Backbone:
């Protein structure tokens, strides 16, 4: 499937890139551009920059770059056509499609599944709002404090107890309903998968319905099945990659830098009702690294609002690993024992806020809980408490953190830290050995990579390559990939002046019109960028028609602040190019011998003398901060001479 170029251009032009990126990363204005933390890699200093006028972004840390379409594809993992379709829908633009393409069947299949799921959500919602048989469901929701506004905000619904209500209402092919997890083939034909349950629609981060969660009403008979039933895995729904409520919570998460993870749908709704609209929940599965990676796009602090100690040692090790790898801070909200967020939100919402605002780090929470549950009034009780707390401290991978908590445990249990230290070291060794054995066993189970659980993807990806957190001063490409680290160090004055000149050419084309030519640029990449700008009618055309290295440089220039004076920049560029030319002519003259043409040697000598004279004139006192008429005239002469030399060489 293809979309006409003019439709793509219309979508790109109509998209507010600041609003789009702002849903994933907060931006602030700095001069003409907008900057913030990159949503594609972990960093502490903002290196992500956006040009709102041109609709382009560039990260000086990991070198990702592009426009609104590229951004949506990268952040959401969708292909080009889907990204354009989403942006077109946001902007209210109708686009045309040319049918065909290898991915057409998959795309059409996904679109059909999303369409039938949307119909199902609408059907169940209307059933809850208006049908007599949903009266008990409405009463139950009111008892939980859910009024009409909440029901509509979260799209809650009711699945009638009759076996074919949805099947008869949606009128979709049987195989499609089964594939979406909405129906199944029974002894008496096609039957609804959800019956007699309150429906909680599950959406992807963009707001598309992809699955359902169903809760039976209190007092249901023995044959009603489990309390909760979720959609099965489908081509549009994966539990390990889905978080309930993220479509509603992502904006608040971006604004606050924090996201709350709880266990159930009603907990999420409770947090929203308590004034904490940044809560999400897993969908009947344990937290996975995919969840953490997804959350890392929106926030850097994750607050666990469930029994974080219940999962035990293996979960703690994973949390520490993910915390380090994705540079997230994991904290735990200390909720009253035996209470869930949904109940607390209804009874005492301020207590829920307090628990989140005073959330402790993961290790601090576990150690404090171990100490609080022990008897500290006797020597034996304090010894047992120290042992239990040290077992948790030993799980942390950072030696400095372990040492800090060793001191804390020794203070609270009144134990000599030097007597506790050997015990902690022994626990650390035992924990590492246990982890190694578990990893080896998992590796043997699949007969392949160490540490890969059977029938699962690798538990983590290799650490991403690093990047600068401040904009690099060089425009020279990394070489083997746009995400590679660039070398730091001094930049030749000509390259610096060339970059300034190109930034001005992008942002202030009228000020630089007719003042730049290829002969002024010693750097081939900068020369190619100038050629791309000169040969194109717009910056977007230049980027589209250029090769990868030049396009990357142009996007970088588009988000750079033009802070140089045009006259001084042209002068500096001419001076640098003339110095390069002088060096080249001197080298040629030194290599000359008696057999060389005397006329050529004389011309070289005259050129050297003239260039030295012009360069000395450009270094006259008082011209460091501004360009005098004499210096400007010298620069103009050098530019003309450089261009003539360049053309003759070609």
Residues:
């Amino acid at each position: 499937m293809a979309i006409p170029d003019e439709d793509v251009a219309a979508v790109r032009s109509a998209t507010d890139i600041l609003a789009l990126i702002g849903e994933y990363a907060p931006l602030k204005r700095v001069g003409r551009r907008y900057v913030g933390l990159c949503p594609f890699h972990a960093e502490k200093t903002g290196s992500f920059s956006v040009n709102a006028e041109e609709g382009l972004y560039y990260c000086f840390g990991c070198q990702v770059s592009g426009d609104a379409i590229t951004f949506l594809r990268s952040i959401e993992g969708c292909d080009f056509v889907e990204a354009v379709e989403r942006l077109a829908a946001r902007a209210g633009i109708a686009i045309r499609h040319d049918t065909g393409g290898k991915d057409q069947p998959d795309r059409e299949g996904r679109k059909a599944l999303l369409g039938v799921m949307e119909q199902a959500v609408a059907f169940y919602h209307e059933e809850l709002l208006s049908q007599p048989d949903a009266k008990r469901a409405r009463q139950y929701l009111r008892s939980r404090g859910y009024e009409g506004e909440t029901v509509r905000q979260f799209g809650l619904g009711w699945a009638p107890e009759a076996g074919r209500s949805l099947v008869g209402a949606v009128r979709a092919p049987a195989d499609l309903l089964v594939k979406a997890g909405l129906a199944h083939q029974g002894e008496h034909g096609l039957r609804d998968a959800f019956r007699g349950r309150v429906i909680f629609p599950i959406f992807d981060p963009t707001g598309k319905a992809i699955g359902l969660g169903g809760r039976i009403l209190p007092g249901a008979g023995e044959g009603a099945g489990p309390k909760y039933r979720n959609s099965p895995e489908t081509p549009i729904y994966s539990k390990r990659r889905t978080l309930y409520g993220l479509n509603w919570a992502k904006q608040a998460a971006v604004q606050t830098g924090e996201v709350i993870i709880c266990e159930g749908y009603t907990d999420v709704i409770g947090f929203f009702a308590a004034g904490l609209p940044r809560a999400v929940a897993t969908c009947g599965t344990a937290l996975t690294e995919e969840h953490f990676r997804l959350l890392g796009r929106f926030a850097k602090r994750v607050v666990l609002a469930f029994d974080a100690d219940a999962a035990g040692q293996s979960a703690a090790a994973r949390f520490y690993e993910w915390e380090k790898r994705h540079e997230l801070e994991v904290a735990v909200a200390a909720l009253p024992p035996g209470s869930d967020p949904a109940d607390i939100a209804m009874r005492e919402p301020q207590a829920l806020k307090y628990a989140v605002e005073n959330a402790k780090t993961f290790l601090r929470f576990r150690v404090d809980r171990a100490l609080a549950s022990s008897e500290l009034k006797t020597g034996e009780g304090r010894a047992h408490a120290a042992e239990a707390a040290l077992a948790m401290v030993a799980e942390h991978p950072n030696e400095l953190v372990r040492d800090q908590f060793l001191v804390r445990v020794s203070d609270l249990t009144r134990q000599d830290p030097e007597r506790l230290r050997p015990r902690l070291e022994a626990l650390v060794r035992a924990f590492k050995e246990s982890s190694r054995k578990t990893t080896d066993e998992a590796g043997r189970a699949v007969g392949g990579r160490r540490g890969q659980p059977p029938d699962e993807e690798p538990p983590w990806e290799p650490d991403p390559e690093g990047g600068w957190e401040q904009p690099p001063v060089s425009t020279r490409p990394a070489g083997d990939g746009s995400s590679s680290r660039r070398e730091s160090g001094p930049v030749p004055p000509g390259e610096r002046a060339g970059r300034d000149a190109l930034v001005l050419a992008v942002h202030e084309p009228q000020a630089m019109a007719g003042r730049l030519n290829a002969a002024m640029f010693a750097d081939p990449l900068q020369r190619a960028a100038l050629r791309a700008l000169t040969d194109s009618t717009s910056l977007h055309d230049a980027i589209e028609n250029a090769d990868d290295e030049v396009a990357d440089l142009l996007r970088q220039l588009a988000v750079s602040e033009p802070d140089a004076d045009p006259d001084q920049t042209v002068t500096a560029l001419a001076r640098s190019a003339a110095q390069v030319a002088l060096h080249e002519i001197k080298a040629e003259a030194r290599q000359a011998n008696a057999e060389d043409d005397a006329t050529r040697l004389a011309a070289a000598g005259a050129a050297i003398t003239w260039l030295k004279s012009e360069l000395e004139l450009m270094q006259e006192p008082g011209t460091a901060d501004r360009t005098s008429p004499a210096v400007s005239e010298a620069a103009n002469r050098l530019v003309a001479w450089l261009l003539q030399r360049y053309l003759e060489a070609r």
Summary: The chain has five domains: 5-91, 102-237, 239-358, 372-446, 493-649. The longest strand covers residues 209-216. The CA atoms of residues 101 and 587 lie 57 Å apart. The first helix runs from residue 5 to 14.
